[in-house]
Amino acid sequence: MSQEFGGVPIALPKSRSIYAVVVAVLLAFLLFYYYYGSLLTILLLFTITSFCFYYLQDMLLYHPDLPANSRIYVPIPKMHNLPHESVSIHTPDKVTLHAFWVSQPKERSKAVPTFVYFHGNAGNMGHRMQNIWGIFNHLHCNILMIDYRGYGFSTGVPSEKGLSLDARAVIDYLYTRNDLDHTKIVLFGRSLGGAVVIDVAADTVYSQKIMCAIVENTFTSIPEMAVELVHPSANLIPRCCFKNKYLSSWKIGKCSVPFLFISGLADNLVPPRMMRTLYMKCGSEQKRILEFIGGAHNDTWIMDGYYQGIHQFLVECQSISTAPLEKPPEKSNVWHEIQDV
After folding, report:
1. DSSP letter string over 151-204?
2. Pick the catalytic residue: 103, 154, 191, 263?
3. Is 319 marked active-site?
């Protein structure tokens, strides 16, 4: 907001601009109350509040700009000595997704599993490069890293429906490549990415295109997370008022592919009991859960036994074995600084 003085525009201080808007809104409500009465004024206030709550939810859930410059700077695999190819994936609704294809040497790429990596709700795929390094070097798998619409260099705006389309477009893209084994596609998702993975695994068509699914520190649903993060009274809000629902606790019962649940018991964002609930409700006959006492929301991957547990699960999936996983050592890693988001 600005005023002109002597033909020269002078910007008002930001605090004054906000004050002016607040005063204008209050005056508008007073006039509306004067002419239409209290009942219609309350109804108008409720309608505006509901509208704002519904459309501001995306800002509360999706954080592609955190940390700063995440939309203009995406660390590349080469920074961690990983071979890679930058690819563009097009969705049915004309969005272009930016992805990194990190492949094992040509003679091995067709014989090993391929991870499709869905990250959390903040930053971009480049912020997960240390975990990618571990998957590449410890599990010896190919990895397709993907930035959702509105994240990193991908176009579009994030939404629940949009991320669902993105995930399916990514799987379709893999089936256009001839440098991997299409029977060994593994979906991996952390936090928000776990909800995306469960959505795909519950799809009767796309579940046939993957070997197994792995979710890490993910939640049961957005309404239930609102109760945890906002206030217990949030459970009184009708489900239809949530723009993004991600009803994983309902979808997981429809999943039949082998499932691995990785839970950090020191997670202070997503309650570990949500991971246990998803495990219990999972409809798969071949499901496993790995729990790490020292694992927090973003750093469970540094725990001792993490990659060993995933490796054993992958061996089981490829051999159709039902032998139980070995419990990982209950020992915290000595790393103190985490660069993940």
Report:
1. STT--S---HHHHHHHHHHHHHHHTT-SSS-GGGEEEEEETHHHHHHHHHHT-T
2. 191
3. no
Q: How many CA atoms lie within 13 A of 75 on its CB side?
A: 19
Task: For residue 76, give the DSSP letter.
Answer: -
Q: Is 200 within 8 Å of 167 (Cβ atoms)?
A: yes
Q: Rounded mean pLDDT of 185-206?
A: 98
Question: Which pLDDT value is given to residue 340?
Answer: 40
* 231 a catalytic residue: no
Residue 220 per-residue DSSP state: S
Neighbouring C-beta atoms of residue 35, cutoff 10 Å:
9
Structural domains present in the chain:
2-61 (no CATH), 77-319 (3.40.50.1820)
Active-site choice (166, 199, 203, 267): 267
Confidence of residue 338 (pLDDT cuts 50, 70, 90): very low
Beta strand segments in the chain, E: 2-5, 8-11, 85-90, 96-102, 114-118, 142-146, 185-190, 212-216, 259-264, 287-292
Tens of pLDDT along 119-146? 999 999 999 999 999 999 999 999 999 9
pLDDT digits (tens, 9 = 90+) for 224-267: 999 998 888 888 888 888 899 999 999 999 999 999 999 999 99
Q: How far apart are CA 195 and CA 216, in angstroms?
A: 10
Place of tokens 């649903």: 221
**Nearest-angstrom CA–CA distance, 103 and 140:** 9
Is 297 considered catalytic here? yes
203, 297, 299, 340: the catalytic one is 297
